[in-house]
Amino acid sequence: xxxxxxxxxxxxxxxxxxxxxxxxxxxxxxxxxxxxxxxxxxxxxxxxxxxxxxxxxxxxxxxxxxxxxxxxxxxxxxxxxxxxxxxxxxxxxxxxxxxxxxxxxxxxxxxxxxxxxxxxxxxxxxxxxxxxxxxxxxxxxxxxxxxxxxxxxxxxxxxxxxxxxxxxxxxxxxxxxxxxxxxxxxxxxxxxxxxxxxxxxxxxxxxxxxxxxxxxxxxxxxxxxxxxxxxxxxxxxxxxxxxxxxxxxxxxxxxxxxxxxxxxxxxxxxxxxxxxxxxxxxxxxxxxxxxxxxx
Amino acid sequence: xxxxxxxxxxxxxxxxxxxxxxxxxxxxxxxxxxxxxxxxxxxxxxxxxxxxxxxxxxxxxxxxxxxxxxxxxxxxxxxxxxxxxxxxxxxxxxxxxxxxxxxxxxxxxxxxxxxxxx
Lengths: 295, 118
Hints:
The complex is a heterodimer. By secondary structure, chain A is of the alpha+beta class. Chain A folds into two domains: 5-186, Probable tRNA modification gtpase trme, domain 1 (Gyrase A, domain 2, 2-Layer Sandwich); 233-294, Elongation Factor Tu (Ef-tu), domain 3 (Beta Barrel), CATH 2.40.30. Chain A is built from seven helices and 17 strands. Chain B is α+β, with helices and mostly antiparallel strands. In chain B, 17% of the residues lie in helices and 38% in strands. Chain B contains two helices and nine strands; from the N terminus they run E-H-E-E-E-E-H-E-E-E-E. Chain B has a six-stranded mixed sheet. Chain B has a three-stranded mixed sheet with strand order 1-6-7. The radius of gyration of chain B is 14 Å and the shape is globular. The two termini of chain B are 27 Å apart. At the A-B interface, helix 1 and helix 6 of A face strand 2, strand 3 and helix 2 of B.
């Protein structure tokens, strides 16, 4: 294996299994992407749960397992995600099992990922395969944080220690603060910061996770209208400054034109009015000059 | 056109015209009468979508069975929470929508009227 870095996401993300005959159909009716195209073990997809106003509940990853769908969400959103699905499980044969405490998730970053897992070279983004590693059966899924490709390794919690020790022989484990720094540097949205009910998936640049021809889902009418009539008012951008910045409003010529939603040292992620992007790349955070970089 | 009747909060009602169309449908299928299954499922633009089916295999054990205007209506108990007080009507004519749920629990509905929120 070549050198790589990895982060233990076990307690940063949550894992929820959906079981029952109607699991795919229900999730398809509740989220933005065409979940109905998931047909067999090994396929995965990202999708956004949205409110009936087209606002974001969370961006979730969905894997089609033999007996269930495995959903991965932020640990802070799992209660909301679970309650949302439960509320809309009415006539459907769907049950939920929270497997967060029984499973682990590790994310691996490398400039040459396919050298680490050559089996994945032919597979599509988000798809996964199962392989034995250190005597453990693990699921390895290709993933992407904006332009940065990565692999997610998911397995039984009891195998986590061995897997981490094995990976540490070849790569470097990064801490959550380093991961947060990486996330911000990639402009990748996170639940509670960029992914909240204050914003819609188009503003959050999640258009790749929206199907515009799958039919109805909760919030579809609003999302489709925003896209068709080009009514998206704000857009996620990266920002930087010569000085440390924090979360708060940003201004241009004395008017509020956006809000910083994530910040670490001199870098951050913000939503800004789209109109301003045609006028300037320089805005103000308090008295500090801040530069806007499109994602 | 059918006049909207005042919803009864404790039951599901079938308007005269809706009952007529259910029975017409049954006859076209060679049956004397038909039963209706109504329900609600998650999804649709506004959050919840109406389900309406003609059924011939009778009610399930857990169903609530309501009879109105000569039509038997089966509804599962969880759906009934969202449908209590509903009048099933029929909107005919060239611009008609067919069967229409006049649901007093619906706070908003989507443009096409097939989904609603509570």
